[in-house]
Structure formats: C-alpha cells, structure tokens
Amino acid sequence: MAKIITIAHQKGGVGKSTLALNLATCFQEQLNVALLDIDLQGSISDLREDFPSLHIITEDRFEQIQKLEYDLIIIDTPPYLSSRLPELFLMSDYVLVPTKAGFFDVMAIRSTLHLIEEAKRKHKELEAGIVLNMIKHRSGITGEVQELLASFNTPVLKTMIHDRVSFARSPLTGGVLASEDSKAIDEITSLAEEIVDTISNT
C-alpha cells in the first residue's frame, strides 16, 4: 500500500502546488510516485506534458487512491475549505502544512491544524508538520510568529523554503532539481528527508 502525503492549508497563496510538484520530482528518483491533483483549478494537471515522467492523476481517481499501485502518493489540495480534507487526513500517513512567516499567515493555519488533530483521534499513526515556505531573504521570523508556532501541537520542520525564482519557475523548468540553483535543491531535498524520517519511524 502506498504511503500518502497530503499538502493542505485552507488559505491560498502559500505555495502548496509548487511544494507538491517539487517534492514529487524529488521522491521520483527513488520511488514510484504519483501526484494527485484534487484542486479544481487543475494547475498541476495542466503540467502533464511538461513532466512526462511524473504520474499526475486527477480527482476522478480519488475513490481509488488507496488501491493505486505506487510507493508514494502526494496530494495537492484546493486553497479553500474542503469537505474532503477530513477524509483525506484519515487516509494519509503525513500532512504537510505550508505557511508564510507572517503573523496573519500563521494564524490562518489554525483551522487546518484543528482538522488534523481531529483526524489523529481516529488515526493514531497520522503525522504532520508545518513548513515555513516562501520565506523572504533577510526578513527573519519575528518573535511573535515564533511564539505562535510554538503554541501549536504540530511540530515546525527544521527546513525552511525560501522565496526563490527557481521555485517560482519550477513548473516551467522541470522542477528545481533540474535547475542549477543548489540552494533550492538543498532545501527541497532536506524537506523530503525530514518527511521520510518521520514516516519511517511510524
């Protein structure tokens, strides 16, 4: 049975699709990976021709997800409250919650974290983590944001993903692993390793 990583945040503009795409291409080097796009905007589904070696599947396969023969399935969720999130969390092994480093951005993840906590009551092995994403260079994380993050039950990952042109352009360039941006490559690889380490221990 495939391991399932769901990327979720009930707010748009936090880089879920870009993370999903680049994590999939990162894991693809060693695993049989599928990227499931349940975003009605279909932003990832439109990239099939640009990523011919990546198995991109759409919402119509949702009901069969746990029967699909892959090592890993990464799910990109829509940027609004979805009635399917609780169902998705119950079938997931890991939920990744990206957030920007602003105070209001971090405040906005509380409803998503609440759904994760509810899922954990039924699915004891579910793991989750918050990743600081699209971090501006030289901006730092304020004490208020750090204090708020520390108040959540969901751990904050050590890896931070910075706001880099190579990430923004990655849907057009075959992913950051195909770029020459060593810092972006290190960041997405480090994120993948953190997630794998957590899943492997469950």
What distinguishing features does this structure have?
7 strands, 202 residues, Rossmann fold
Category from helices, strands and their pairing? alpha/beta
CATH superfamily placement: P-loop containing nucleotide triphosphate hydrolases
Rg, rounded, reads 16 Å
Number of strands: 7
What share of the residues does DSSP label as strand, in percent?
A: 15-25%
**Stretches with pLDDT under 50, minimum 5 residues:** none
> How are the strands of the biggest sheet laid out side by side?
3-2-4-1-5-6-7
Order of helices and strands, N to C? EHEEEHEHHEHEHH
Named CATH topology:
Rossmann fold
CATH top level assignment: Alpha Beta
Instruction: Give the number of domains.
Output: 1
**Quaternary structure state of the chains depicted:** single chain
- Proportion of helical residues: 25-40%
Reported for the largest beta sheet, the result is:
7 strands, parallel
Number of helices: 7
Distance between the termini: 15 Å
| Mean pLDDT metric | 89
Architecture (CATH level 2) name = 3-Layer(aba) Sandwich
